[in-house]
Amino acid sequence: MIKKFVYGNPIETGAVVKPVEASADPIQYLTELEMNGKLIFNYEMENDDVVYGLGEANGGLNKRGAVYRSFCSDEPNQTEDKQSLYGAHNFIVISGMINVGFFIDCASEVRFDIGFTSQNMLNIHLGCPDFTVYIIEGRNAYDIVKQFRELIGRSYIAPMWAFGFQQSRWSYMNEDEVRTVVKKHRDAGIPLDAVYLDIDYMDGYKDFTISEERFPNFSEFVSEMKQEGVRLVPIIDAGVKIEDGYELFEEGRQYQLFCKKGDGTDFVAGVWPGKTHFPDFMNSGARMWFGSKYKSLIDSGIEGFWNDMNEPAMFYTEDGVNEAKEYLQNFDFNTNDPGKFFELKDKLTSLSNRMKDYESFFHNMDGRIVRHDQVHNLYGAYMTRAASEAFDNIVPDKRMLLFSRASYIGSHRWGGIWTGDNQSWWSHLKLNIKMMPSLNMCGYLYSGADLGGFGCNCTRELMLRWLAFGIFTPLMRDHSAVGTRRQELYEFGDTEDFKNIISVRYSLIPYLYSEYMKACLSNDMLFKPLAFEYPNDNFACTIEDQLVLGESVMLAPVYEPNAVGRYVYLPEDMLLVIFKSSSVRKYQIMKKGMHYIPVAANEVPLFIRRNKLLPLCRTSQCTDEMDTSMFEIIAFTDDNIEYNLYEDDGISKDYDNPDNMVQFAITDVDGVMGAVSNKTIVKLSLF
Ligand code: MIG
């Protein structure tokens, strides 16, 4: 049951696709309070209510006890106290005696104080007077999430090759460096499907250009890599370099497709290329224009992109620099007041991403002029939209890989997201684990973190443990920043362990892809909190570091340094499978309850739920070489069971074809339990 309440004159954000009549009744559940002309909603929580949601946000699965601010932010220093990350996902579910979900469809800043100021008080602070609230009632949290997902529409569907292992670095500087990366993976037998091109593939950081010097024969190089089973994935930044004669700049200026200042001039911000203009993604013409530019790279054979810096991130603006200059000129360097020196320091370190700058430029939303801060959270989402809608024209029958850094609910239909600049910290592995279900609640199914961490130096052990979780996330990409320790897997000494871990992923791809596709097609989640599957088990409901993955699997990753294993709670009897490699495994049936399981850093543990089965294919070096004619089945049952494997060609869009379902069954054949399927079953391990 979904009710809609409209405040003021909201802009159409595009978040919701299912028509809902606006209610004329007063709002339910939430009480309104006005402070300094701004609206706050209050909701009194019960002591043991759990609050889920908020997608890409700090903290745990249960969001209680902290403040979260939806304001897409370039935040590479994601310490615990940070209230904003790159996405703005204003959907929460309160789960307890009363179950209710709130979606605050508001494109400007929204702050959620979830029992921080006052333990049982939820306050939602609205940054602007024009927005829509959706209130969703349901049987439980999971039911509310599913209704919400239906409201916001089917998630973006990635091509199957994007389930392979992807290697990235800021930046691989030229053809030869990329060749070396590919060769070293192949030589070590570490499977690989994609290599990323970060900003240095461009000519002077100009979007849709390619450096002649570094990549002189781009399309030949793209096909050479494809021969190796490797796709190249270039980055596209939001800012367009100001440079006479640069086509994108000239066109954008001439046709008025950039964001403007109040005085009608094009807004200028400093980013990687130096001074840039921001395309006005809020304008349909600008979206169409910018989107059409992806064609040249697609014509060169490119099949995937990542959109970056689209919060939009700004290193500085002319206004900010001028203010700082003036401040310096007037600064009394002889002062004996230490406070003044702190002020001076702040002045110079706060030139980036200033609120004042976000308030100084405007969008032309097809006739409606809107100040940026009022629609800030839509900017990156609409860049994704520009690309996605363009792909529908350029390659209508083909799936492209596309994911973004900034996002707003609605953009889950146009692309995936990665979770931005994390660090090589154990706490960020844990954050990655806890964030996946929240992202799924908000529609982001094709997502993942920079495995191993983007900033800082990763250790071998952290990399192994991170991969042992990362091999389950749809986007599985090792990415790291310039200046950090090299993070390609072969850089950590003995490559055998890495080969083994990534090989496990490749044998799991059919299951992962199947569960991912089913979740996309039925507005469901791939990663679920235990609470969603075992709602009557009070202890299971409090667990945040174990997740249910699709229909058959429970995960319990190790995320502590120097650990030799971990405690796991089983809400029912399960089969523990420890992968030493894709083919070497240990099995153990475990009873419902608490257990300590030893897991070495080069092993991958997973649990198969009771009366479920897991299909595995033979591992391969890339998805193009995957053989899904033969399967091995691991089943934990003494009963007849079935599993429907979703399978398609992985690249076209014929999703809803019933032929895409392949059935596996464990059944009694003449008094013996056996596996039955149209596929060849090479081995059955029955427990
Ligand atoms: O200011 O393109 O999050 O993945 O490697 C940094 C360089 C810009 C931020 C992205 C990161 C990427 C980096 N970019």
Note the topology.
Elements: E1 2-7, E2 31-35, E3 38-44, E4 50-53, E5 66-70, E6 87-88, E7 91-95, E8 100-105, E9 110-114, E10 121-126, E11 131-137, H1 141-152, E12 166-167, H2 175-188, E13 194-197, H3 218-227, E14 231-237, E15 240-241, H4 247-254, E16 260-261, E17 269-271, E18 274-277, H5 284-292, H6 295-299, E19 304-308, E20 316-317, H7 318-330, H8 338-349, H9 355-358, E21 361-365, E22 368-371, H10 372-375, H11 379-394, E23 401-404, E24 407-408, E25 416-418, H12 426-441, E26 447-448, E27 450-451, H13 460-470, E28 477-478, H14 496-521, E29 527-529, H15 530-533, E30 547-549, E31 553-555, E32 565-570, E33 574-579, E34 585-590, E35 593-598, E36 604-609, E37 612-616, E38 630-636, E39 641-646, E40 661-669, E41 672-677, E42 680-686
Helix pairs in contact: 5-11
Ligand MIG binds at residues 170, 198-199, 235, 308-309, 405, 420-421, 454, 479.
